[in-house]
Design goal:
Two copies of one chain form a homodimer.
Chain A: H1 5-21, H2 27-34, H3 40-52, E1 56-57, E2 66-67, H4 69-79, H5 87-97, H6 104-116, E3 122-126, E4 135-142, E5 147-154, E6 158-164, H7 171-185, H8 190-204, H9 207-224, E7 229-231, H10 233-237, H11 245-256, H12 259-268, E8 275-278, E9 290-299, E10 302-312, H13 317-335
Antiparallel strand pairs in A: 1-2, 3-7, 3-10, 4-5, 5-6, 8-9, 9-10
Helix pairs in contact in A: 1-3, 1-4, 2-3, 5-13, 6-13, 7-8, 8-9
Chain A binds a DNA duplex through helix 3.
Chain lengths: 336, 336
DNA sequence: GTTTAGCACTCAACATATGAGAGTGCTACG
DNA sequence: CGTAGCACTCTCATATGTTGAGTGCTAAAC
């Protein structure tokens, strides 16, 4: 079923008005602001048609109309005009990705900062997991005053731990053991690594240092573990949809126990660019009233990082998409 | 002015009832629960006296009584019975601090996790600032595939950054320059260090690597910078005092722009053990309705870390104090 | 002197009524 | 096909009782 020109105009105006005002749109105001020389009654008829098509909803009998999920979808797919980025933001994005940094973990946190500057979305990011982090080096550095720093380097991140050197332990022998290990296990995925390593390590190093080393490796796995990072909470919570205390509580909970957000991000971000999920298109009930603009970053065939901009369904899709596209391009370039 | 035995009993019962129920306490219920064989009228008289002494408040003419700030203070100082910790929590605390770890930054984040498990307070923590972090080592490690890891070690934390080696740059010459620098500036406070270092570095290392190194050092300062860390937000926001949307918004804002919390923590935590601040005793208007149980950790005469448990004035002081005392002891021992 | 019973009074919270305002659907007409 | 007009609906805000918990005070009892 095709929409004629005017219906599209009306739908688009309703979406954009509603995004801006967060208030249902009535026929009178729309007839005025639309500037087409038609009366409110005509608009009302068009609205009734759009509602019959499932593109608009009524909050109650006598408030204005609000876009439905399908209405937003149509808007995003066909009606929306891509909006150019602000110069300032554009420049900041470019400059971040022109640097020499290759540490994905670091890039994730910096990118998150960038995404949250838009000032109205909840920015979420996911770094590479232990599955696709590969060991490059494991070492112990002298750190003065009887302490050492354990350092683990992978292709995606670095981890460290400052420890008291146990009495009677030789730095040299520790280093030798670690070097040998590094050599042997170089390039191995961190996920497979641990089991093998635990046993190899146990042979060479004894006592408390062994315990600490194992604890350190475990933490490296945990840190490398895919845990969603979040920025821009207050902007997000400031959205008018969270005015009621019950809603705001739900949103806070959603953010705190980030499992749901992680799931959302994983489902929404994929290969090949930026994609949008709207309301009911999300699986879990907690996110049925939210939308997400998301993308994944690929390196050598694997997705090593994922990002998303989350807002109420009434979010500014054009703005979010422009930002996401730009960051996507920058990051892909920087990483590959 | 001395309070007789019964007045103390009444005050204590009111505080503890109110802490548990968050509802003002009336004379009738109190007469019943207190189990003293006196009538509500007698309790009413006692209450009136306590109110005259400034130890109780009335939310309005005809609700029950609520402790005033001074009432809480008297309760904490004289009336409260120290509560023993739960075994489980106690064991977890001990085991964390029996390890070899000396990295304060790491200890801060682990301790914060511990504090937030109490499940009703907002836990805040502050690590050592650049002022009291002293350079131990600055190095560049080969990290494979044309990349290097810059590593900076201080007595309190370690920082790192994974970089692409610029074409034509020699790892050896970079290392030499960094070693020389480490040697020269060893033990210097990170705060004074940078200025001097910037210039020294500029001489030895050129081009993009210089930029990246400077950026790295700047970030080290920023990371080492005293920035308050927060855990347990959702427990805190679940407190009934934040039922109204306006209040909850205020609380969220307080948490997000953490400057006020940092100030609060700095003012409340000091040398020599755990202390309590109640309501109006806090300076800034945003925290007038909150209380904090806080302590600082000393090492060689300097406070290198600070922690606080924040709740509404109606918080469970006995529980918070027990937890704080235990963590304080454990940390002091582990660090010294 | 202390305690208690009794009573009038106060105030928040809840429910109910009322009116205004915004918006809709429908019908009849140009 | 578009428009004017009108009855109708529903939310929101305001006003008005009503209820229940709690207080303060007085006078009598212990």
């Amino acid at each position: 079923m095709e929409l004629d020109r005017r219906k599209r105009q009306v739908l688009r105006a309703i979406v954009e008005d509603y995004v801006a005002s967060a208030e249902p749109i009535g026929s009178r105001t729309l007839a005025r602001t639309l500037g087409l020389g038609v009366s409110s009654a005509t608009i009302r008829n068009e609205m009734a048609d759009l509602e019959a098509l499932g593109l608009l909803d009524k909050p109650h009998t006598s408030a204005g109309r609000v876009p439905s999920d399908r209405g937003y979808r149509l808007y995003v797919d066909e009606l929306m005009e891509p909006r150019p980025m602000e110069q300032e933001a554009f420049r900041r994005i470019r400059s971040l990705y022109l640097r020499q940094v290759r540490e994905i973990d670091y890039l994730v946190s910096q990118t998150l900062g960038l995404l949250s500057t838009a000032g109205e979305f909840l920015a979420v990011g996911l770094g590479p997991g232990p599955r696709n982090a590969h060991l490059r080096r494991l070492d112990a550095l002298e750190a003065g005053e009887g302490q050492i720093a354990l350092v683990l380097v992978t292709d995606h991140f670095v981890q460290h731990r400052l420890l008291e050197m146990p009495d009677g332990m030789q730095l040299q022998s520790l280093q030798q053991a670690l070097w040998a290990l590094s050599q042997e296990l170089h390039g191995m995925s961190l996920l497979r690594l641990t089991r093998t390593m635990v046993e190899a390590v146990a042979r060479e190093i004894k006592g408390r240092m062994q315990e600490e080393l194992l604890a350190f490796l475990e933490d490296c796995l945990a840190t490398g573990e895919e845990r969603v990072r979040i920025a821009g909470t207050s902007h997000f919570l400031a959205q008018p949809e969270f005015r009621e205390p019950e809603r705001i509580r739900g949103a806070v909970q959603l953010i705190e126990q980030s499992g749901v957000l992680q799931e959302l991000l994983l489902a929404a971000s994929g290969r090949g660019g930026v994609s949008v999920r709207i309301g009911e298109e999300n699986r879990s009930p907690e996110t049925r009233e939210l939308s997400i603009v998301a993308f994944g970053i690929e390196r050598q065939g694997e997705i090593v990082a994922r990002f998303g901009l989350i807002g109420p369904k009434r979010m500014d899709y054009a703005k979010a998409l422009a930002l996401a596209e730009e960051v996507f391009k920058g990051l892909e370039q920087a990483i590959n």
